[in-house]
Queue: 4 jobs
Job 1
Amino acid sequence: MRSKHLVILIVMVLVFMAIQFIRPERNMESFQNRNELFFRYKEAPQLVRVQLLNACYNCHSNKTAYPWYASVAPVSLMINANITKAKSELNFSEWFLYDEQEQVKLLLEIAEVLDNKSMPPKPYQWLHREANLSDVERKKISDWAKEYSNALGSN
């Protein structure tokens, strides 16, 4: 019985070592994207920009600041899958590629997920203190997103 456990342990260690060679492509755009001007213009006040960068940008852009554990499989695979899904929902790096109607929709979705506290996800907040938004910070971003969507929608 003991040798059976040893064999299982060895197989698990070998599998863990083997999956370390699976390296998903990193989400690190190397050039300055003209569409990232979203964070440089007046659309968002400085405080809102900083909060969006800290809480949202790692997953919802083409530039992720990877922590050390993002190099260890299977965590690296899970992180890559989460980033891919997040960018399919909203990619700030491509903000100006969205038409005005889509921008309005995305802004209202930003407000909604902040109001119902479904973003940023809890596990992300546990590992990234800067993404842990207070109720006041959530309200500021949400109010800004609603105001900005109204301004866009009235054009």
Job 2
Amino acid sequence: MTEEFEEEHESQPIVEHLTELRDRLVKGVGAIILVFLGLVYWSRDIYNFVAQPMMKALTGESTMIAIDVTATFLTPFKLTFFVAIFIAMPYLLYQIWAFIAPALYRNEKRLAKPIFASSVFLFYLGIAFAYFVVLPPIFLFFEAITPDDVALMPDITTFLNLILKLFFAFGIAFEIPVATVILVVAGIISPDGLAKKRPYVIVACFVIAMFMTPPDIISQSLLAVPMWALFEIGIFFGKLAIKDQPKDNDIADDTDTESTT
């Protein structure tokens, strides 16, 4: 009887955690579906807006085409779904935060809140940077190098795959300061140790940009240079995070005070 009670007592928290995880996932998926249903009516307008940098770069008789018959419907539909994910991202991250927050200490919660907020902001900033800064010169470059006897007519599906790849690449790349601060706060590496690895980081930034962007020096540089700059920003805020952390002596004093009272 005692063994059965102990087994039930130990297994219950696991079941509760799994149930809560399921509920969080259902809420996240439900939020994406609700946003998608609210945007699907304007799917063509959303695609036209996202395609503006490409359309402005096209000259003469060049225009976008649809090779597949179903692409005129599925491509804006697919883009709207990803836009719904982008819009619902703060709520999705909140669900993650609400799930892991009870397991964090007070000082960890103090750092986790700004980290989550900054990760959302930097992700949106990366997408905005890709749309307003990166896409126009890339498309102008490809239009400029097109031979005179060739009309540039990009397929809408291929174009969508390209911009989604760039959006995710820049959105994730702009999370470098957050990842750097986490590594420093967790004690995995120090800011000085990261600074010593700067030459390797610069090379890695250009290698990653080479695989995540079209094969031209403009788009690669527009991703690699911001990644390097964000790495330097991460080192700076990592130093600030260490300074703000309570020292071991302070923690010990607080513990002694609590035990005394």
Job 3
Amino acid sequence: MRVYRWAIILGLWWAWSTGAASPARYPYRVVGTTGMVADIVRNVAGEQARVDLIVGEGLDPHQYTPTRGDVLLFQQADIIFYNGLLLEGRMGDILARMQRRGKPVHAVAEAVVNQFDYSLRDEDGEDDPHLWMDVQAWMKAVEVVTAALAAFDPDHAALYQQRAATYRDQLQALDQYARDVLQSIPSAYRVLVTAHDAFGYLGRAYDVEVRGIQGISTDSEAGLRDIENLVRFLVDRELPAIFVETSVADRNVRALIEGARARGHTVVIGGELFSDAMGPPGSYEGTYIGMIDHNVTTIARALGGEAPERGWQGKLQRR
């Protein structure tokens, strides 16, 4: 909290020293590149902002190419928030151009990694951008967004802080639920195998072993040796389930299932997880809280843990 308060104070000082004032019109326009980032802004900014999303349901930000409509949204935005850490690699030039033009542009996950030392890297030293899989880390992202909004619109800084505090309380409870249900999985089966390595932060935060067929970016390709090694791992550990992702093709996951079957071991698809994109707009799973609730509930139930069928708040859709 001390770091958070200083971030707000520094943001307000910057606004005062540069002569920045509150927006000339409300709601001002915000663009969030991913659903997870945009959801923070909606919770903190409330009716003060209109939030547009670039990468929607079922889309992969690693490989997403912005459309002309997306470029127009960036141009019309008063302030932009994105994840960073190369998650939106193909948007990099546009984001840099907007920043050069003086538009406020904020890399949310990148700021958390740099300010709060949450970095997680792969074996090649590349930063993992999937910070939102650790709810405690994503609470730091709420602080980053709140400080940026307070600097942009100092007249409503206290209101943003109040909303952020309410939202962080909800995330604290969600984090405890995730911890409880994932720890209920028998230790021998507390292993998450998915299409790509998007769950490293979840594994570190909640003591779950994580294996991805592809690397931290879906731009990487899984080779035959990668598949064979994972098949051997599944069979040796006698794992009951692996998982597909809503924004990644399932062909490699099904190859694992076939490979395990050929070795005499049956493994099933334990469910579909939200990795780089949230659920349908307007649904519970279309919020960050609903996304994480769905993921940890699905994982726990498929791997022998204990979790309510409809999740933490009884709001999950039956899938």
Job 4
Amino acid sequence: MTDEMTEIDWTDAETFSRALERADTREKGNFFEAFGEGDLIEHDPGLTLTQWGNEAWMSQTLNHDPAYWRTDAARDRGFDEPPIHPDYLTAATLGITVEDLSEKGGYFLGRTDVRFPGTPVYTGTELRVESEVVSTATSSSRPEYGIVTWRTRGRDAETDEVLCSYERTNMIPRREPVATDGGGSAATAEEPDEPALPSEFVTPDGGAFEDFREALERADDRDAAVAYRHERGRTQDDTTVAGLPLATLNTAKQHHNADVMADSPSGDIVTYGDVTRSTALGHARSDEDTYREVGFDDETFHTFVTPGDTVYAFTRVLEAEDADRDEAGTVRFEHIAFNQNDEPVYSGTRTAEIRKRSS
């Protein structure tokens, strides 16, 4: 090292500014070109599903099912102890993948086929996550992006059992934009006519399986839908916007780098989509007697949720079928999360077993 080098005051503001201009940035994440159909990606480091993480997630997203909080209620549901909540398991499975798959940014286009095992997952389980590239495609409307779909599986690191799996699709920035015909941006079709809403909205009398089935029967053969909104809201704060993503190892700059996001379309850091989703589901579950989550499909995030926004929920009941168990029947819902401006921010279908009155 030369004498001149040792005499440099690297913390002098002007000197340090000039050093930053010349220094390369060690970037995180992968561009679109890094993904090839059939690639299998093992995500490090994995995550131990803890009681603290589980309860923090449930409490902050208003999921208050007693079977996940109290041993007596858990045993009444057939669990040995309060298990890991499916929303926390889903968020942890996705959070671990962010650095490898989507940290570069790009729009979350959707997730579907979210499934869980029939057996409960308990605290202390060590989660190992892998993703397979299902497909890659060019975006005709955004030449600076490509479209990637992954099949992700969260496994028990000890037994290799699949604990959570889903398929998700994202736009991913390209290292180099490609030439396209611009076909995705030139359409100027006429505005479609607004579809007519049902003339009547039916609200279930309670939260038991029979209440949902009877509401659907009342709506049958009429211009009616079983649809209702939930009273609670949850305003986004530091915990939901930054704390919960970090607890799932979700390092995306969208949730943590306010200076970078100030120049983004959202204008601010944004809430992790699984926080928005889980909050809306927590509102919905507060008006039903949930027995077990089966799965989720056709999940879409419609616009940004930023600090200070309030997440509300709206539910439509699609069908109710008796299951081969005395305790519960199966109900399929559509849930829509919306903000204080009544703008949809998330939507998806959910299948759950709902407790029967007789149980």
